[in-house]
Amino acid sequence: MGRTTGRRTVFAAVCAVAVASIYAAQPVLAEIGTDLGVPGAGLGWIVAAGQLGYLAGLAALVPLGDLVDRRKLIAVHLLLTAVGAALAAVATQTWLLLTGLVLAGLFAVVVQTTVAYAAALSTPEERGRTLGVVTSGVVIGILGARVAAGALAELRGWRSVYVALAVLLVTLAGLVLKTMPPDPRPEGTTYRQGLNSLGGLFRKPLFLSRGLIAFFLFASFGALWSGLSLPLAEEPWNLGTAQIGLFGLVGLAGALGAARAGHWADRGRASLVTGGALVLLAVSWLAIGQPSLWLLGLGVLVLDFAVQAVHVSNQHLLTAAHPDRTSSVIGGYMIFYSLGSALGAAATTAAFAGAGWAGSAVLGAAFAGCAFAVWATARRRTRTRAQ
To answer: Cys-Cys link to 23, which of 123, 145, 151, 307 (CB 3.0-4.6 A)?
Structure first.
């Protein structure tokens, strides 16, 4: 394995395990509730705790990547994420579990620091390929966590999931320190200046347009993955949790296939990839909304391919435009991701309650249409300025 390939693999593993610490609770919520006596109405807070911590970390911690050595910062954040996972593993009361999950979510923003560091270590000709591989790790963590956590919990109980995460996080912290080069940062920049720099990005047309695309993109993504279990568990399918979890593998295959988007972005086709992938995203909902498991699986495959292709293209364009503050630009961009995911998750359950899975499909397609409208508007403005 070459040095570049080895680094990409380590970075992808860091992203996968760190983001899994946020999503690992989803398939084991029932077990956690039974063990700790959490009523059904309160189980949502177990998932929300990690998401809230993550959102806070995006604003407060990610700008540090432009101020301090990212190799050391990644290692420290991995260790602190491990502390959060360990607290969750030993929690005997709900408040301690929530504290651990908030802590894990807060420092799981190491994902964004890792993506920014990987982009900074890459040559301009290989940046897209690197981002494609590394962000595939994020998708593996999001979708793979559902499958792995469910299987591990069935064998050893839900606490074993967080024990395994803590061990993996500590191991990866040591691996990062051992294999990654030092990352000296310019002196004289303060944390306050870093936060101001992050705020200033929201006035940049490219950042704002790509952020809005991500907002609607991940609202569509959230509409699928936060609501998919609802129709599958009902008539006519009545699938069990293990069978429903297999759809995560389908989505994973689609997302990993989109790593090729990095190659296209390296060749200057990031904008075209975005437009084409957003069309695929909208079309995928036509299959997802049909009463057929085969069409549903095909739609999930296409949707995750499209989402990953746009996500890689967005990050490629933003890190190329702001090479001096890749951590801030990735962190700010992911704020749109978090808000969009939350909107999709909340809206799809309401749509399903009112109009069934067809309503959720219309909602997901509408989000895709909004993302395409933002892309088309931004592209038109860019062409107008160039004339």
So the answer is: 145
Q: What is the distance, to the nearest Å, from the Cα of residue 21 to the centroid of all Cα atoms in its chain?
A: 12
Model confidence over 72-90: pLDDT tens digits?
999 999 999 999 999 999 9
pTM: 0.81
Taking the alpha carbons at both ends of the chain, their separation in whole angstroms is 47
Can you list the alpha helix ranges (DSSP code H) found in the chain? Answer: 3-23, 29-36, 44-60, 70-90, 94-107, 110-121, 127-156, 158-179, 191-201, 205-225, 229-232, 241-257, 261-266, 270-288, 293-321, 326-386
| Higher-scoring residue by pLDDT: 270, 278 | 278
How far, in Å, are 11, 239, 291, 350 from residue 235 at the CA level? 42, 9, 11, 19
DSSP 182: P
82 touches 350 (CB < 8 A): no
Give residues with Cβ within 8 angstroms of 63, minimum separation 6. Answer: 191, 194, 195, 197, 198, 327, 328, 331
| Residue 118 in tokens | 């990987």
* Of residues 201, 223, 214, the one with CA closest to residue 336: 214
Q: How far apart are CA 159 and CA 150, in angstroms?
A: 11
| pLDDT tens figures, 329-362 | 888 898 898 888 888 877 887 888 889 999 999 9
DSSP SS3 for 61: coil
Distances in whole angstroms, Cα of residue 366 to Cα of each of 101, 298, 370: 32, 19, 6
Q: How far is CA 57 from CA 106, 109, 248, 280, in A?
A: 5, 6, 26, 32
